[in-house]
Amino acid sequence: MAVYIDEVGMSKFGKRTESLQELIFEATKEPLKNTKKKIDAIFIGNQNVEEFCDESNFSSQITDYLNLTPLPSFRIDTASSSGAGVFHSAFLSVASGIYKNVLVIGGEKMTHLQTPLAIRILSKVLSEEEKFFGGNMSALAGLITRAYMEKFNVSREDLSLVAVKSHSNAMKNPYAHFQKEISIEDVLKSKVVSSPLRVYDCSPISDGACSLILTSGKTDIEVAGLGHSTEFISITHRDDLTKMNATINAGKKAFAMAKLSPKDINIAEIHDAFTTFEIIGSEDLGFFKKGQGMNALKEGKTSLSGELPINTSGGLKARGHPLGASGLAQIIELVWQLRNQAEKRQVKAKIGMALSIGGLASNNLATIVRSC
Amino acid sequence: MAVYIDEVGMSKFGKRTESLQELIFEATKEPLKNTKKKIDAIFIGNQNVEEFCDESNFSSQITDYLNLTPLPSFRIDTASSSGAGVFHSAFLSVASGIYKNVLVIGGEKMTHLQTPLAIRILSKVLSEEEKFFGGNMSALAGLITRAYMEKFNVSREDLSLVAVKSHSNAMKNPYAHFQKEISIEDVLKSKVVSSPLRVYDCSPISDGACSLILTSGKTDIEVAGLGHSTEFISITHRDDLTKMNATINAGKKAFAMAKLSPKDINIAEIHDAFTTFEIIGSEDLGFFKKGQGMNALKEGKTSLSGELPINTSGGLKARGHPLGASGLAQIIELVWQLRNQAEKRQVKAKIGMALSIGGLASNNLATIVRSC
C-alpha cells in the first residue's frame, strides 16, 4: 500500500530552555491543528531520553502530554538515526493497512547536560572494545577522516568547505541551530577536537523535535523508497574506513524499492555528524564515484544552485543534531523543498533522498520521497 | 496480510549471571538454528537498557552480537509492555508485505543492580507529580489493590490465592524464575511491600530474554488479533482505580480484529506485575464480570484444569518479569500450549490471549493467537 506525507512540523533547533515535552508540543502543534486526518497511532523516535532527561516510559509520557490518549504509542530507537528509524517503522504500520494515519515524532534534549557528560552518553553507542581503548565518537570519526583524506588527497582547506556550505545554507533556515556565516579560515582556526577534525567539522549538541503525519490517503508527496542496514559496531571490523557499508546497503535497497537510481535524485540530506560524512555519504549513495565527493562539492554541484543540492537545511552540522529528531528533520527539509516552501534556500526538486546514520554508521536508513 | 508464528525460544528466567547479550543469544539460538525462514529484519523490545546495563545503540549491538548484520534492526520500547510492543510493531512490518520473516526479541537484565536502584529506575515510568509525592510502582499498585479489595469485598486470604496458583503453575515451567510451591500462609506471613501488597503479591526483579519469528508464510499458529491503547500516566487522573481503561480498549480492539469474543478464548496470559492485576485484567478483557474475577479464581475456573486457565506459565509473578521479555514470554507460553508443548502444565487450547501492561497500565497491548 502506498504511503504519503501529510502535515509536517519542527521546533526551532538549538540550545533550548524548554523541556523535551515542550519541544515536541512545539513540533506537533501546527500539524495536529492543520491536518484533516484522524490519527490512529503515534510513533516516537528518541535515542536516549533515559540518560539525557532521566525519563522512562516515553511513549506514554508524550501521548499523555499531547492529550492523545488512548491512541496506541510506540517509542523507536536506532541510536542517532532514530528520527529515520521511527519514520520507517511508522511507514510499515501504514503500509500494513492496519493504521491509516499515524503521527511520527522525533526529538532529543541534550544541551542542559555538561558537555563531557553528554559526550560520554553519546559515545556509549560505540563498541565496548573501542571505548575501552579510548575511542569516542570524534576520535573514531577522526580516524575515518584521516583515512579518507590520505586516500583521496583531500586537503584540510577542502574539507572546511563542507562546513562553510552548511553554515551558509543554515543562514537561510529559520529552524537551524546556527545562523552564522563562517569562512575556511574560521574552520582552520577552530579548536582541534580530534585531529584532523576541528570544532567546525562536528555537529553540535542540540535540542529539537520534529513531527509529520504519514497516511495511506493520497497527498502531494509519496514515500517512494526505504532502505535500512546495520553494520559491525567496531570500525576495527570493517573492511574499509573510507566507505560505510550500512549506507551502501540502505541506499541500494531504497533505490530498488523506488525503482530509481542516483541520477533521479534532485536533492539530498546526508547525515553529516562530521563534515567528512557528507562527502562519504554522497559517494556511498552513488551520487558521485568513490573519491569524487569532495571535488563535486568544490565544483558547486552540491550547493543550492548545483545539480544536486546537499544539506540545503544546513545539515546536522549547522541545523543541529538533536539525535532522535535529525532523521525526521532531513525528511521534513525534503518535504518543504518538494512543496516549494523552503523560502530563501528553495531549490528545484521533485525527488529527494535522505540518509540517516545510527551510531558510528552501524544502523543506517535511507529514504526517498517524491512529488506526485 | 495474515501473519504467523514460526519458531520460538526463551532463556531461563531468574537471577542470571550472564549479560543481556548472552541471554538473548540463549533465547535466539534454537529458533535461528531450527527455522527454515530467511530473516529480513530484527525487532528488539527493551524498556531501559540504558540505565539497567549502561548500554545504548542496542539494536545494532544485538544485531552485531548475533552476527546478523547487515539486517535492518529496530529497538522498540513501550515500557514494561515492550515485549508485546515489539511483537505488535514487528507484526505490522510483516503485515505490510515489505518484510516476509522477522526475528522478534525481547529482553531485560536487572538483577545485577541493588534492589533500591532497580526500583528507582522502574518507578521512572510513573508521572512526575505522583513520583514527587512519594509514589512508586508498589505504592500506587497498593492503592489500586486497596480500592479493588474494598469495592468488591476481597479478603487478604483470597488475594493470596493468585500467588499460590502462579507459584504452583511455575513449578511445572522449567523456564520460570521461581520453582517453589507456596501456601496462603506463606503469602500472609511475607513482608509488607506496600499495604495491602506483600512480597508474594509482587512480581520479582528478573533477568531473561525471549524470541520468536513472525512470518507471512503459513504455519500452525496465526496472529489473529491485536489491540493497543494508552492511558493517562497519573492514576490520579483516572476515573476508577478498579479497572484499567488501556486494557479495556486494547482488549476490545483485539477481539474486533480477530472477530472473536471473550468466550472464544481457551487460555490467557495476563500481566500480573501485582496479584491484583491478574484479577482486574481478567475482568477488563471481558472474561468475567467486574468484581467477579476473584470468585472465578476461587472456583478454579482459571486453574490448569479450569474452563479458562490463566497464567499457566506462572505469570509475571512466578515465571518472573524481565520487562522487555515479559510480553513476548506470554505469547510464547500461548504458542507452547497451542502446540501441545507445555508438558506438565499442558491445557487444551486452540485460541489464546495475552495482555501486557506498560508502566502502571499507561501503554497496554492485547494479542490473540490461534491454531490453524
Overview of this protein structure:
2 copies of one chain form a homodimer. Chain A has 372 residues and is of the alpha/beta class. Chain A is built from 14 helices and 11 strands. Chain A has helices spanning 20-34, 49-53, 58-65, 82-95, 115-123, 128-132, 137-151, 156-170, 184-189, 245-258, 275-284, 293-298, 315-319, 323-338, and strands at residues 4-10, 41-45, 73-77, 101-108, 192-194, 197-198, 208-215, 221-230, 267-270, 351-356, 363-371. In chain A, the strands form 2 sheets. In chain A, strands 3-2-4-7-1-8-11-10-9 form a 9-stranded mixed beta sheet, with helices on both faces. A two-stranded antiparallel ribbon of chain A has the order 5-6. In chain A, 64% of the residues are buried. The model of chain A has no long low-confidence stretch (mean pLDDT 97). Chains A and B meet through helix 3, strand 3, helix 4, strand 8 and helix 10 of A and helix 3, strand 3, helix 4, strand 8 and helix 10 of B.
Keywords:
372 residues; homodimer; alpha/beta; 14 helices; nine-stranded mixed β-sheet; two-stranded antiparallel sheet; 11 strands; 38% helix
Describe the main β-sheet of chain A briefly: 9 strands, mixed
- The count of DSSP E runs of length 2 or more, i.e. the number of strands of chain A, is 11
The SS-based structural class of chain A is alpha/beta
Give the neighbour order of strands across the main sheet of chain A.
Answer: 3-2-4-7-1-8-11-10-9
User: What would you call the shape of chain A?
Assistant: globular
